[in-house]
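Issue: copy button drops trailing tokens. Both records pasted manually instead:
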Amino acid sequence: MTGVLVSTTINGDAVQFACPTDETLLDSLRNRVGLTGAKEGCGTGDCGACSITLDGRLVCACLVLGVEANGREIGTVEGLVEDGKLHPLQEKFIEHAALQCGICTPGFLVAAKTLLEKNPKPSEEQIRYALAGNLCRCTGYDKIVRAVQAAAKEMRKK
């Protein structure tokens, strides 16, 4: 394979991988780095299943080239677990049955975490707005919103 060596930070760890210049960051994360949490739902940035953070900004990994990650900081759903313990968002998604097939769940979790880092006490309207770029065909959105509200409340206690 001819490609470019990319040096980046993923979930706090320094990572290097080689990828073709036309490969998406989503494919690089999944196929080169082995982080399969982000999913390809549409490949056009419309569904949010591949949501990650790039330098703290929520992006669809299917719309970013792998080579664009060079020297940047990436956050994925795998980074939510700390010391083997689920993040409060993950716990509340389970508790509130806010997931079914699981394709959209990683993107929702990353988007919700990004919101709560900026706004620890969001209104329901703010949660719905922040998650508007993520589509779910199974659960409907009420359980997801309730899970984010519960996680926000729990996170404020810590």
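Record 2 (pasted manually too):
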Amino acid sequence: MSVNMSKGERVSLVKSSGQGLTQVRMGLGWDAMKKKGFFGSRSQSIDLDASCLLFDGGGKLVDQVWFQQLQSKDGSVLHTGDNRTGAGDGDDESIRVDLSRVPPQVQSLVFTVNSFTGQDFSQIENAFCRIIDESTETESARYELTGSGTHNAQVMAKVTRDGAGWAMTAIGAAATGRTFVDLLPVIAPLL
């Protein structure tokens, strides 16, 4: 059963059997709003980029997965590829995480999205991020990236160690930047 999350809400990542999830996928989806013109509307391409940043318990960035590095150094996190338009239904970009292989020093995985092409969120609709249990292909949690505005990036969610398992917190912090590097000052106080 999927949980529709609100900003700031936290959920444990467990299967319906009560066991913790180990293989998850963070899916990001979006549509570009049609541009209205004198001769009608036309579609536009918006290149949103999903990133996963791995932090230790002290808030130090230890690895990153994004369109220029599609896999973490230890192989536990894998970006499936860059979608440069948002065309199509469902997840436009996905990041797979084997939570059982994430190194013990990594305490938080932070997922971000930014508009590499620079358009702001007022030109994006139907944006969401979600966690899918890879073993069953069922959605565990979904966070709608609402609140379009003049920001062109957002810290979507973080997944943190929670006892023997993991938990997801919907963040939804608006930011500005073309890559995850620009978002680090916004992420630091959220760890």
